[in-house]
Amino acid sequence: MTLDRFYPIFDDVDWLHRMLPLGVKLVQLRIKDQPGQIVADQVAQARDLCREHGTTLIVNDYWQAAIDTGCDWVHLGQEDLDDADIAAIRRAGIKLGISTHDRGELDRALALEPDYVALGPVYPTKLKQMKWHRQGLEKVSEWKGLIGDLPLVAIGGMSVERAAGAFEAGADIVSVVTDITWNDDPENRVRDWLKATR
Ligand SMILES: Cc1ncc(COP(=O)(O)OP(=O)(O)O)c(N)n1
Ligand SMILES: Cc1nc(C(=O)O)sc1CCOP(=O)(O)O
Ligand SMILES: [Mg+2]
After folding, report:
1. Would the CB of 181 count as within 6 Å of ligand 2?
2. Residue 128 pLDDT > 80
3. For the segment 55-71, what is each residue's pLDDT rounded down to a tens digit?
């Protein structure tokens, strides 16, 4: 199964209601700082909505909620891996994407046989404070050389204008948050992304 090249990330299922009808085929639900029941409700709603639209849903962080609701994918960062029950995730038949930022993290990720690897921040991100400032397109190419056929997701400071460069450097998929969610017209921005990545 091939993942779409455009991988937007949203923090609430309301965004999915707005964006999936436009043609988004791969999406991450990245909920932060919400009570467990809200997370469970949001994940279940997102699962149903994505099924309706033929969209692949990737649940960030909340791997147990993904198992409990019968989701197909989770995304975990390095800190998430410290607590996650990878065997339980795999037993549930769930596919796994893992964040990486340096060689040590990449080695750790590859040992878990992930279904994609994400590298970031390719460009500086305004979304969150990070230890890494800017990995650059050279590192995208280096990562692709190291992981071969495994899908590579480029994330961090990505925009419609920067997407082509990331693909040329070797990314298979480009993931994005604020270029859409902080845009004055998020729907129109998603349409631009769809045009640029189809
Ligand atoms: C596609 C993608 N890449 C990287 C991340 C970051 O994951 P993580 O390091 O666990 O940080 P949080 O997103 O959980 O704050 C991601 N979510 N998606
Ligand atoms: C959630 C996340 N993870 C990153 C990583 O490098 O692991 S960068 C990032 C933020 C992406 O948001 P924006 O597209 O607004 O820069
Ligand atoms: Mg995380």
Report:
1. no
2. yes
3. 999 999 999 999 999 99
132 Cβ inside 6 Å of ligand 1: no
Where does the pLDDT of residue 114 fall: very low under 50, low under 70, confident under 90, or very high at 90 and above? very high
Which residue is closest in CA terms to ligand 1's atom 11? Answer: 77
What pTM, to 2 d.p., does this model score? 0.98
Q: What are the helix and strand counts (H, E) for the chain?
A: 10, 8
Q: Are 181 and 158 in contact (CB under 8 A)?
A: no
Backbone angles phi, psi at 92, to 5 degrees: -80, 0
Enter the ipTM: 0.99
Å from CA of 23 to ligand 2 middle: 22
Query: Which residues are within 8 A (CB) of 42 and not within 5 positions of it... i.e. 6 or more apart?
Result: 12, 13, 29, 31, 34
Fold of 6-197: TIM Barrel (3.20.20)
* Three-state secondary-structure class, residue 149: coil
